[in-house]
């Protein structure tokens, strides 16, 4: 019963996110037309306003669409959180015991992290990033809800450990944050602004220690479950690779000539490795990190 | 390797004057190696070099997969094999990269640690002439004199390192600095990485890992040497002569399953004696309930429950009435239903003639289903022991056990069958209590089924150190990423020549030494506290 509610909520959240994306896109389109108009006026000899995009007329169409988009994102996140909660109650355990649940948790973290970043930075320029944050979220949730879907059920004995809560929660939080950072860096490569760079860096700086903790917690769990703390299982290996790439990102930020554009590429590569670890390693390479179902 | 702070401060090692060219060359190599740029390149190389370890099968994880891969790609396979791509993490090129990285790291760390030690003793630098050029600054005229303002500044900057200086013209300045833990965290993080590597190396040198299958219901295993194990991976300095000789006995094993066959829990009831118990002559076995995620932790060694399976018991009654009973583990071929295959081998007793003895060996081979599908061809529908049945093929003849080659305990030697030395003499499906009659009057009874567990003994003397350094690493990382090193300056100038109101011009300035530190928010608070709210101009 609860499991069904969880599934309904999951699908509803996906739909709400899609709607939010539509509004972000509408805001984007509307702000572009707004931007063009003053330029035409300027060409006629008028005065050019310095920041046409950041300070549109109050209650402009773009602004209204943007606010709607954010409101829908918040609604989606609430419904999504309900889905995760109901899943946990239905299964009687932490709701990240298989690939579907894990993907769902990462997406929820990413959306919440995005909302927090938006609240702290409060900029309409940043708000447009919502479309690009929700895009991977929606794709991940779609794959999770179809290909990876698994019924709410108890997990195998190897996963019955309080380390499931610690290790997997930390990985989910770190991955969700890194998604936001990766999107910011990818956008920075298209449109290099100081704001996007700052968002990417600050979110990564929060995510990296959490990710490091998650890997260490995983090693502690592996010592209890598999007899060694590190065995170069494919999942461990790719986690190591991603960690090294993020370490390179932090070092690149401190190296002349590497600070901005190259650093952004490295950050994108790091997130690509996190996603690669989530899908490819579980679905294609067999290892010890196989969940129920996949 | 350097660390993420604002400058790629490559430690400069000036070559001594009038030194031979090769010393200058060495100094240059050293300077390059310890530069941030090289560290970055090495980090990328490390990530790149580790990837084949995930993409290609690895011998340490699954040797059979490696062999299959080499067989599948006869051109690439052997080449990759020679280059060490199937043992990436033991390959010389992987080791070269991480060793260079660690040399670079140490080379960068030493000068930075020295610099940090100096910085801890140094006083904050003098106030810059023009504070308005700093990224954060402010200026206000206040109605109190310099002493009063300085008193407030000192109170507000409690916890900062401060020094006051006088400048000509009655001007007074204060320099303050905070956030030394940033660099300390940085150093701890990188030093912990070195410690981690040493801890791991300890484990690789002196650790070992062995697997052994033990029958439940009283089977015993003692850690007396490598030969007691079914497989053993020894550290580089382990020859198996000095293992800690503890013993375990598997009294019982129980697995529980969900209705769909998914395992719900595994539990092995153990008794164990530590080497200390044995040395003191104690005959007591201490009880332990071994579960997945709950290893038995002895003094250094850990015992894990890795797997389980079934071992059918067969009794052979020869025509002359002699009986032989044997229980040998069979191996699961399907982990979901625990359909298992195996071979139970018998030597006929009482035959003195060597050739005769060899002609009369028996092998009971086949498939075992814990819950039989009941069909003509035995299949298993559930992993638990509900309705066991074995489909047996009985072979008689020369098993080929005496030719010196090792042979699998799970199968008969196909070569012996092909050469005609071993022939199939019966095929039948049997349930417990049922028997197979052979043409010579021999009967084979399927008595019962026992369970076996697969145990792993692990020993790693470095792992406590690894845990300690991993914790330090995390701590250092947290410090270096959350704390920022920042400076704050105040300059107090009397408002004007002969001004009787004792007014003071207060200028403040701030600079953070950490990349994108977000010092701005803290600086605004300082400004508000010291100069009052920002006035609209």
Could you describe the 3D structure shown?
The complex is a heterodimer of chains A (294) and B (537). Chain A is mainly alpha-helical and 294 residues long. Chain A has a domain at 155-294. In chain A, 75% of the residues lie in helices and 0% in strands. In chain B, strands 4, 6, 10, 11, 12, 18 and 19 form a seven-stranded antiparallel β-sheet that branches. In chain B, a hairpin with a 3-residue loop joins strand 2 and strand 3 (171-178). In chain B, helix 6 runs antiparallel to helix 8 (180-206) and helix 8 (180-206) packs antiparallel against helix 12 (463-482). The longest helix of chain B is centred in the first third of the chain and has 30 residues, at 92-121. The two termini of chain B are 48 Å apart. The interface between A and B is large, with 53 and 58 residues.
Task: Report a brief summary of the structure.
Chain A contains nine helices and no strands.
Overall outline of chain A: flat
Task: Please give the most extensive interface between any two protein chains, plus how many residues each contributes.
Answer: A-B, 53 and 58 residues
Structural class of chain A: mainly alpha
What is the subunit organization of this protein? heterodimer
Number of helices, where a helix is a run of at least 4 consecutive DSSP H or I residues of chain A: 9
Helix content, binned percent of chain A: over 70%
Q: Helix fraction of chain B?
A: 25-40%
Task: Output the radius of gyration of chain A.
Answer: 21 Å
Strand content of chain A: under 5%
Secondary structural class of chain B: alpha+beta
How would the global form of chain B be characterised? Answer: elongated
Rounded to the nearest angstrom, the distance between the terminal CA atoms of chain B is 48 Å
Fraction of residues in β-strands of chain B: 25-35%
